[in-house]
Amino acid sequence: MAHGETVRSSDNGPSAATATESRFETDVPARLDRLPWSRFHWRVVLALGVAWVLNGLEVTLVGSLASAIQDPRSLDLSNTQMGWIGSAYVACAGLGALGFGWLADHVGRQRLFFVTLLVYMAGTIATGFAWDFWSLALFRAMIGAGIGGEYAAVNSAIQELVPAQLRGRTDLYVNGTFWGGAAMGAVISLLVLNPETSLQEGWRVAFVAGGLLCLVVLCLRRYLPESPRWLMLRGRPEEAERIVSAIERDIIRVRGPLPTPSSNKLLLYRRGGASLREVWDTMRGTHRDRAKLGFVLMSCQAFFYNAFFFTYAMVLTKFYGVQAHSVGWYMLAFALGNLSGPFFLGRFFDTVGRKPMIVMTYGLTGLLTIWTSIAFAYEWFSVLEQTAAWAVIFFFASAAASAAYLTVGESFPLEMRATAIALFYAIGMALGAGGPALYGWLIGGESRSGIMLGYLAAGGLMLVAAATEWLLGFDAEGRPLEEVAKPLAAVVQGFDPVPAMPNGGALPRTAVARQGQWPGSVTQVDGPRRPASPSWQNIGRGETSASIPKGPTLDELNNKPDDLLRRNDLRVDRPNVEPSFAELDQRIDAMLLSSSETEVRVAVLLGDPLPPIADPPGKPGLAELDRQLDAILRRSSETEARVAALVQRLG
To answer: Where is the signal peptide (predicted)?
Structure first.
């Protein structure tokens, strides 16, 4: 059974026979990962990456044309209002990511490619017709929702379609193309902000033209297939096979015979997409350290980028006296620094490794930002020197930010990949939404020292992210996605997703089972490891991994369940008051039932006779409660040893 899948009762769940029939074996991931780079992969990168170019174009136009939009002859907006408009974009980008990301996991990547792009296109064109602060904020919010959905659907699809040995650099390259669009936006702003051009009309034409370019991207995406990995995990292996076979035939016609795929096949069972409960349980259970890592990487880079990027033009015009029609030149240098980072550093994420490169890029970004913020406050730099310093900083920051999306996408099972990317993107956007408004307020205060404090905070957050990666980062370079994060639909060989019980029913749901631990999941999980289990041979001599006190008090009995939960890496939510005797009795009965269910699952895995489910006595005394707890602790130690033997057998 896949970790995270609830074991259902016989009244509303499949039988063991049905679960067995729903299994299927597939080598789709191995076949995709062994493919050489081909025209198919170029089509994927172009069709999905071009949207990033347009996004960069549109976002840069907002920054470069800020002065034109604020001009009294145009919308006559203040710095603070521009900051709030940026925050509206960021907040709705998070909301759009959540909605469209969930849909991408449940209805498919391909459909979302069109929906998200249409939302983005509508908002961009409408921006050209904005008439006041509120209309501009609304249209920018629409753009944000579309872009948020793009991040979730596109990043998940790219990772699933690109070979494992090239996944890191390709993901960084595609995300980096955003800055190619930013460079284009800077050049366009130089044209539309020409002093001889009407400020009222120039910026409007730029947004309408940028939105219409999305029609080209829509045409390109018509030729992209659905992700075979998504089809495979939705229980549609035949469709996945047809798509992969078509890709292979096209490559063979050009490149000749293909390498033999790995002999490792996945045994899966048919299931739907991951529920929100499964997503939550996976993130707080099996992959909780990866969830912490994704949260820190995404939120820190989001605040850093949003704070700098949405106020860049305002800093140039207010503190360096740059004219509105000249901002594009400085934005061009800024964009080129961002563009070059992923393209120069991307390949090292596949060769040197994810962890050292992420630590380096985040760390250097933080250190350089702190130094530059001090130089800004004390006016050590001219406008050209300041621009050069920022270009160097964002050379590393751009690669770091792209790696955050790569990390989140690789951290979790395929059934919830787009949802996970969307969730962490939304969290990052929510925490980063205050950046533009904060910096807009600081800029409005006309104090360099205040802005320096904001820059110092952003640099400090990047250092925190670097330290977190150092502590919690993992190696994913060159590894199949299914190896980095085991699919929820994966079946352990010889184990039915819903094992049969002696009475013909199914196991009741375990109250305290850790997500991903039972049943059937014997993969290594994140977090602190358990103490070594006793050897199988010593079980009979009474050697256990838990000491059993003699002559217990009621308080000592109450502590025993907590000790057992801690041994199983489970959180202990214990009230501060001591329980009554009846409450303690109920608690122990629930644990005894859970322990019996776990023994049954292990027996199914090992092919042993099924033990009966324990039937706790009705009203035991204090001594009987102590005996029950001792039995639970001993049986838990025995189960640990049997699981260790099972892991060794599976090799």
So the answer is: none
Per-residue confidence (pLDDT) for residue 364, from 0 to 100: 96
Reported as type and span, the H/E element at residue 25 is: strand 23-26
Question: Tell me, what amino acid is at 629?
Answer: L
In the prediction, which pLDDT does 497 show?
37
Domain 23-483, CATH among 3.60.110.10, 1.20.1250.20, 1.20.1540.10, 3.90.79.10: 1.20.1250.20
Give the residue among 274, 571, 232, 268 at the shortest CA–CA distance from 412.
274
Q: What are the beta bridge partners of residue 25?
A: 267
Angle between helix 327-345 and 383-411 (nearest 10): 40
Q: What are phi and psi of 490, to 5 degrees?
A: -70, 140
Written as one string, the DSSP assignment of 261-330 is: PPS--EEEE---PPPHHHHHHHHHTTTHHHHHHHHHHHHHHHHHHHHHHTTHHHHHHHHS---GGGHHHH
What's the farthest any 2 CA atoms get from each other in the chain?
94
Which are the contacts of 184, defined by CB distance < 8 A and separation ≥ 6?
A: 53, 56, 57, 60
Domain ranges of the chain: 23-483, 539-650
Q: 269 - beta bridge partners?
A: 23
CA distance 200 to 68: 8
Reported as half-sphere exposure (CB side, CA atoms, 13 A), residue 6 has a value of: 17
Secondary structure class of 22 (helix, strand, coil): coil
User: Following CA atoms 178, 181, 186, 190 in sequence, which dihedral angle do they give, to the nearest 10 degrees?
Assistant: -170
HEC profile for 569-597? CCCCCCCCCCCCHHHHHHHHHHHHHHHHH
Place of tokens 């991994």: 545
CA–CA distance, 66 with 68 (Å, rounded to integer): 5
- Where does residue 418 rank: exposed (0-12), middle (13-18), buried (19+ CB within 10 A)? buried
Q: For residue 539, what pLDDT is reported?
A: 31
Q: Report the Cα 477 to chain-centroid distance in Å.
A: 16
Helix (H, G, I), strand (E, B) or coil at 498: coil
Percentage helix, strand, coil, to 5, in the chain? 70, 0, 30
- Mean pLDDT by 10-residue block, N- to C-terminus, for the chain (651 residues)? 34 36 78 90 87 77 72 76 80 86 85 88 88 88 88 84 92 89 78 60 77 85 87 84 92 87 75 76 83 91 78 76 76 86 93 94 95 85 86 93 90 86 82 64 66 84 95 90 82 39 36 33 35 35 37 52 48 45 62 64 61 51 65 67 66 56
The C-alpha atoms of residue 156 and residue 97 are separated, in whole angstroms, by 12
* Residue in 418, 533, 432, 542 with CA at minimum distance from that of residue 481: 418
**By CB neighbour count within 10 A (0-12 exposed, 13-18 middle, 19+ buried), where does 22 fall?**
middle
Bridge partners for 267 per DSSP = 25
In one-letter notation, the amino acid at residue 359 is: V
Place of tokens 């039988």: 15
Question: What's the rounded Cα separation, in Å, for the pair 549 and 299?
Answer: 47
pLDDT, residue 18, reads: 37
Phi, psi of 610 (to 5 degrees): -80, 125
Residue 141 CA to its chain's centroid (Å): 22
Residue 562 and residue 604 in contact, taking contact as beta carbons nearer than 8 Å: no
Instruction: Measure the CA–CA gap between 566 and 63, rounded to whole angstroms.
Output: 52
User: ∠635-637-640 over CA atoms, to 5°?
Assistant: 110
So what's the pLDDT on residue 265? Answer: 78
What's residue 381's pLDDT? Answer: 83
